[in-house]
Amino acid sequence: MESLVLDIVTPNGHHYKQPTGLFINNEFVAAASGQTITSIDPATDKPIATVHAAGAEDVDRAVHAAKVALGHASWKKLSPTDRGQMMAKLAQLIDQNKELFASIDAWDNGKPYHVALNEDLPEAITTIQYYSGWADKTFGQTISTTPDKFAYTLRQPIGVIAQIIPWNYPLSMAAWKLGPALACGNTIVLKPAEQTPLSILVLATLIKTAGFPPGVINILNGTGKDAGAALVAHPLVDKVAFTGSTATAKHIMKTAADTLKNITLETGGKSPLLVFPDADLEQAVKWAHFGIMSNQGQICTATSRVFVHRAVMDEFLARFRETVTTTSIVGDQWDENTFQGPQVTRAQYERVLQYVDIGKREGATLFMGGEKAVVADPKNRSGYFVQPTVFTDVTDEMRIAREEVFGPVVVVLPFEEEDEAVRRANDSTYGLGAAVFTRDIQRGHRVAAEIEAGMVWINSSQDCDPRVPFGGVKQSGIGRELGQAGLEAYSQVKAVHVNMGTKL
Ligand code: NAI
Ligand code: MG
């Protein structure tokens, strides 16, 4: 077991000793697969640590652990109030370790440390806290039928849940998935993304400390094609909850069909942001910038298509250039001036630069950016840094206007009429987020109703709150996470018919 323990110091001085095994039945164990994953610091292109990675045999073991835990009295008979308190304790433990979590996620993912600490961590903590409160507030109904009969419903867990999460918000994506699943009494096998396997190991340690019985939450690092695919195919898994690319989601849906698994999918987007001529332009520019350039543009809901009314286009562009120039400071995770860190992996970095080439070849105008960003510190010369990039003279048919880039790249398109703007905004296979900038209250609500998206922001972008449902329409997903709606994804209703009489 010694070889499982990692002893590292983060670049900002956090020392931690961490087992790197698979977390099954509340113990860190070596992977039977013999596979490992080496995590890379995207700012330096240097390895951080190597962790165990699950194969099919390990997946089978973890799923069985979750299945046993589901029926075990320590979980099944735990009162919902006690279950909620255990969750609240976990939230408290994450809070007590928030600097460590932020350091690891910044290092592993590339996001600025201050962003991880002040945005990702509060999101993860409040999500678990929020759902801890729901644990004893989800129950069924009593339904009157005839004078002699009635029925009632029980709200029960779905069972063993496979949760597959991405790398863009490692800890908060785990919290979004764990919170509602635990509140509803399910058991879990969670697979983090192979690009960011580290912070979840610290979380596993805290899960044990919080008092969760063995097998309730199992965590398997591993690749999508091995651990992910084996989880989705496993016959004892009752549900798959996934966040990631639309292509992988389609694959998961097909595999899940073999055993008719319940699924929740949160996938890609090409979310529009509409700026009407009556908008507060300063606000529109500020949010348009935040909506695509924050988190290195690696946001499923990124407002990556900005439609600007022709009357205000010149002014919008001038102000947007100014904001990008002064705000989007590119640097490493540890510099407190950094707004934009490196892209998460070399593959994502190359993908972003490829899209820049595609845009240029399609005839769009590179308004700003479009190159590798060179940062001052020599140790970061091999980092995956990209300049914040803006394209103009873009048409709706161009690939850069239709496909998800998942980087700090935005297309700005002019429009003239409200109907036209809505029609073009909706002309997408995706439907995740959408933003509307206007001072006309009627227009704001009218457009919000007409736009094909799971979330609409009026005079804002990217608001996300554990109390509010989140999800997509069209090819952006199936089902909702967060809020009360998030409980629907992790519970099922059983109807019990009661005969109080002797007649038919
Ligand atoms: P991905 O969808 O392949 O990976 C997401 C998760 O799915 C990871 O945990 C991965 O291991 C797992 N996975 C991959 N193949 C699987 C399979 N066959 N069965 C089960 N699980 C599997 O996304 P990737 O490759 O990391 O990024 C590619 C693109 O996906 C990005 O450029 C971006 O466009 C999109 N993406 C969207 C995200 C979102 O928040 N909606 C997050 C991450 C990526
Ligand atoms: Mg990494």
UniProtKB/TrEMBL annotation:
Listed Pfam families: Aldedh (PF00171)
GO biological process: carboxylic acid biosynthetic process; polyamine catabolic process
MF (Gene Ontology): aldehyde dehydrogenase (NAD+) activity
List of catalytic residues: 266
Keyword Endoplasmic reticulum: no
PROSITE patterns: ALDEHYDE_DEHYDR_GLU
Domain Aldehyde dehydrogenase: residue ranges: 29-496
Keywords, alphabetical: Oxidoreductase
Family stated for the protein in its record: Belongs to the aldehyde dehydrogenase family.
Name of the featured protein: Aldehyde dehydrogenase domain-containing protein
Species this chain originates from: Aspergillus nanangensis
